[in-house]
Amino acid sequence: MYFLGIDIGSLSCDAVLINGNKEILASSVIPTGVRNIESIEKVRQNVMDAAGVAEADLKAVVSTGYGRNRVEGRAGAVTEITCHAKGIRQVLPETRVLIDIGGQDSKAMFLDPEGNVADFAMNDKCAAGTGRFLEAMARVLEVEINRLGDLDRGAESDLVLSSMCTVFAESEVVSLIASGTEQREIARGLNRAIASRTSALVKRVARKVDGLPVSMSGGVARNRGVVRAIAETMGIDRVGTPESPDIIGALGAAVIALERS
């Protein structure tokens, strides 16, 4: 029997197929786009085809993400917080503090020794410091989004953006460019601003993180500059990141599908 988890986010639609031993057989990440029903069907078909699994052998499907209620034939729809905690438990089981920065919101979770969510905080008032924010900053800096993570290499200034509002931050970055500030210094300033905001979110669920393994999930975890800045701001040696941070929510949903069955 096989179990499928689908995570429908604002930027990407992700799917993970596992077997009864919780082993990942296939995963897929595609843009959500404006027609999320079509994205759901496509990402589902992607993993089924990749694993060579027939629909008849699919035991259960659990969905998560903002579009979780749009998945037909689901056995359940579970919040992102629960699914990311369950997913990170599979790949980085020592995690006690989990940071999830997605396309439109940020979350900090404090996990008990068994990986259950003991407390959480989230910022969903605006897209500040999220994937959408970074996409906008990449456009202003005229770099590909996948290059933004290493753009701060060699930066030395203490520049921090004064505003995290996307509109005002764009204006500030344009002014910095006009004044001759180097791209790498601006990138470092962006990363430090995101890290400061993230650190404040973490403090709402865990006043002290000394000695507690901290991990990060979500697409922004691919941005090495942001990950480094968060570790620096929080005063810890490192922030653990999974090999495929984008699929952690979908993985958690798949595990929940298995456990509920």
Q: What is the radius of gyration computed over CA atoms, rounded to a whole number of angstroms?
A: 19 Å
Number of strands: 9
Coarse morphology: globular
The name of the CATH superfamily of the largest domain reads ATPase, nucleotide binding domain
Q: What would the CATH topology of the largest domain be?
A: Nucleotidyltransferase, domain 5
Largest sheet: 5 strands, mixed
Helix content: 25-40%
Residue share in β-strands: 15-25%
SSE-based structural type: alpha/beta
Major sheet: order of its strands? 3-2-1-4-5
Give a description of the structure:
With 261 residues, this protein is of the alpha/beta class. Helix content is 37%, strand content 21%. It folds into two domains: 2-86 and 247-260, ATPase, nucleotide binding domain (Nucleotidyltransferase, domain 5), CATH 3.30.420.40; 93-241, ATPase, nucleotide binding domain (Nucleotidyltransferase, domain 5, 2-Layer Sandwich), CATH 3.30.420.40. The protein has seven helices and nine strands. A five-stranded mixed β-sheet has the order 3-2-1-4-5. Strands 8-7-6-9 form a four-stranded mixed β-sheet, sandwiched between helices. Strand 6 and strand 7 (106-111) form a beta hairpin. The longest helix has 21 residues, at 183-203.
Itemize the secondary structure elements and their pairings.
Layout (H helix, E strand, L loop, with lengths): L1 E7 L3 E8 L4 E8 L4 H16 L6 E7 L11 E2 L2 H12 L5 E5 L4 E6 L5 E7 L7 H11 L24 H13 L4 H21 L10 E4 L6 H11 L13 H13 L1
Parallel strand pairs: 1-4, 4-5, 6-9
Antiparallel strand pairs: 1-2, 2-3, 6-7, 7-8
Helix pairs in contact: 2-7, 3-4, 5-6
